[in-house]
Amino acid sequence: MQQDFDIVIIGGGPIGIACGLEAKKEGLSYLIIEKGPIVNSLFNYPINMQFFSSSEKLEIDNIPFISKEAKPKRNEALEYYRRIVTSNQLNIHLFEKVEEVKKEATQFHIQTDKSGYTAKNVIVATGFYDLPNKINVPGEDLPKVSHYYKDPHFYASQKLAIIGASNSAIDAALECWRKGAEVTLIIRGPEVGQRVKYWVRPDIINRIKEGSIKAHYNATVKEIKSTALIINTPDGELELENDFVLALTGYMPNFTFLEQLGIELSNDEKKLPTYDPNSMETNVDGLFLAGVICGGMETHKWFIENSRIHAPIIVKAIKEKMQLVGSS
Known about the structure:
Number of domains: 2
CATH architecture of the largest domain: 3-Layer(bba) Sandwich
CATH topology of the largest domain: FAD/NAD(P)-binding domain
Structural class: alpha/beta
Mean pLDDT: 94
Shape: elongated
Strand content: 15-25%
Oligomer: single chain
Largest sheet: 7 strands, mixed
Number of helices: 8
Order of helices and strands: EHEHHEEEEEEEHEHEEEEEEHEHH
Helix content: 10-25%
CATH superfamily of the largest domain: FAD/NAD(P)-binding domain
């Protein structure tokens, strides 16, 4: 089994797959390492999720993405990216977790929970869906609390509090209400998020206005109890009867991993990683970033549709560097 590569790609999501396709086209040896199944983050999205982007904007390497509706759903995306991996026979190791990456001289040494590899270049395309933004209140670790939402059936006939006002929170609120949950939204700001999908936002606003879904604006959670939720509101402290809590307050990249790699982060709350936008190469020679991880805490800045261009940019830069080394 080959253990030495021109490129090791960490992350088997859409952008990691795009990098693998590009490396294969250019005749470079490569390996994609993914800690879960193909497009692990998409697999863990809510079962009924519909993308904001239309199908052609989710395409990689000009491979057509045909969907029933203009904006595809999760199951269609899983099928699309899986077929790309299998039909192109991409070199991908699934359910293998990267534990350490060290650079010695001009080689990277990548250690996983299953094997070890060396590479001249490493591309980090790990996204940001693994680490939730915690609200850091008492009771957040109770079994009734989850930072991920999967299926509305689970919450039928239950008192469900949803913390957040973004797409994930609003989708969950509407789906669970339609399956018979008693839904209460806890929203930190004065309104439903402006970036909520334009065809969904009027729906949730109307459900709130008619009283089908309760909403507390300018509110924060003070404490989560086994059968209740205590929130701070402009009208004072309230205690709400509660069975389950979905804390859908966003996610963040694994900054610890980036720092262990030697990547410099900005000193402000954005924690933007250092990289050259012309090559996507970081301050570590031979180490590249691709996809949404480039945005630090600004996770709304990069999507599949505007970061799929990272793959050809990176592979072109790697080829040029390798040619320079070869001619010297």
